[in-house]
Write a structure and sequence with these properties.
The protein has helices at 3-12, 28-35, 68-76, 95-103, 114-123, 137-147, 152-166, 181-196, 204-216, and strands at 16-21, 42-44, 47-49, 63-65, 80-86, 89-94, 107-111, 128-133, 174-177. By secondary structure, the protein is of the alpha/beta class. It has a single domain, classed as 3-Layer(aba) Sandwich (Rossmann fold). A five-stranded parallel sheet has the order 2-7-1-8-9, with helices on both faces. Strand 5 (80-86) and strand 6 (89-94) form a beta hairpin. Helix 1 packs antiparallel against helix 9 and helix 2 packs across helix 8. Bound molecules: adenosine-5'-diphosphate and guanosine-5'-monophosphate (5GP). The site of guanosine-5'-monophosphate has 15 residues, from strand 5, strand 6 and helix 5.
Length: 218
């Protein structure tokens, strides 16, 4: 393949974002942990937050836990791709890491709330938006209590906000019901694989050019 064709192919292979949203406690983290090892070239984006760590959460792995001042600084310097307030705490996606990954052709998966997803859709219309639904509100309540890592008031706030979040599902591209984890995992994996095969994301002009070149060779 010629250098020119190669470079066009590289341009076309920029990565893309997969945004996963759904009410707190629905199983986003559980699902992400199940899917990440199964898909090559899939990278999780660690968010920043001003909420305190839950027991067992690790700075830099689960979140970058920031003070209000640190978060303000990042907002002022334009270092977030998106950020939003969720039940009294702020959460944001660091921009530099995302750009770096997209330049490398990676698929970046993010766990952001419905406000963040709307900002990402506006900034990057090619992003793929996936909404994770609970099988029932009763089960959502069971899971969030079962996790047992939030205060009573934090749980109450998350459950009451959940009703509002569910209505946003119509703005998403895909919906998955997290009933059986294995099935939800298969579905998310399939979505990512299918999205990678889209003609608009592929390097088909370069491939066709190389097939034509090959055809000319006796
Ligand atoms: P989120 O990241 O959406 O806030 P978590 O991944 O922390 O939610 O999951 C909340 C709780 O629900 C955890 O205790 C987790 O083990 C449980 N859970 C997640 N998915 C399922 C599932 N498919 N079936 C039963 N329990 C689940
Ligand atoms: P939790 O405190 O339960 O970890 O997360 C609360 C909510 O914040 C969840 O709905 C989660 O999707 C959302 N969230 C996590 N990281 C980000 C982020 O970087 N940006 C936005 N907008 N929301 C986030």
């Amino acid at each position: 393949m010629s250098a020119e064709v190669m470079s066009k192919a590289a341009n076309r292979r920029r990565g893309f974002l997969v945004v996963l949203s759904g009410p707190s406690g629905v199983g986003k983290n559980t699902l992400l942990n199940a899917v990440l090892p199964l898909v090559d070239g899939l990278q999780y984006s660690v968010s920043a937050t001003t909420r305190p760590p839950r027991p067992g959460e690790v700075h830099g792995r689960d979140y970058f836990f920031l003070t209000d001042e640190e978060f303000d600084g990042m907002v002022q310097r334009g270092e977030f791709l998106e950020w939003a307030e969720f039940v009294g705490r702020r959460y944001g996606t660091p921009r530099a890491f995302i750009e770096e990954c997209l330049d490398k052709g990676l698929t970046v998966i993010l766990d952001v709330d419905i406000q963040g997803a709307a900002q990402i859709r506006a900034a990057m219309p090619e992003a793929v938006l996936v909404f994770l639904l609970p099988p029932s509100l009763e089960e959502l309540r069971r899971r969030i209590y079962g996790r047992g890592k939030d205060s009573e008031s934090a749980i109450a706030e998350r459950l009451s906000w959940a009703q509002h979040e569910l209505a946003a599902v119509t703005d998403y591209d895909y919906v998955i019901v997290n009933d059986d984890l294995q099935r939800a995992c298969d579905q998310l994996r399939s979505i990512i694989i299918a999205e990678r095969c889209k003609v608009s994301r592929s390097d088909y002009p370069a491939l066709i050019a190389s097939l034509r070149e090959e055809g000319k060779t006796p």
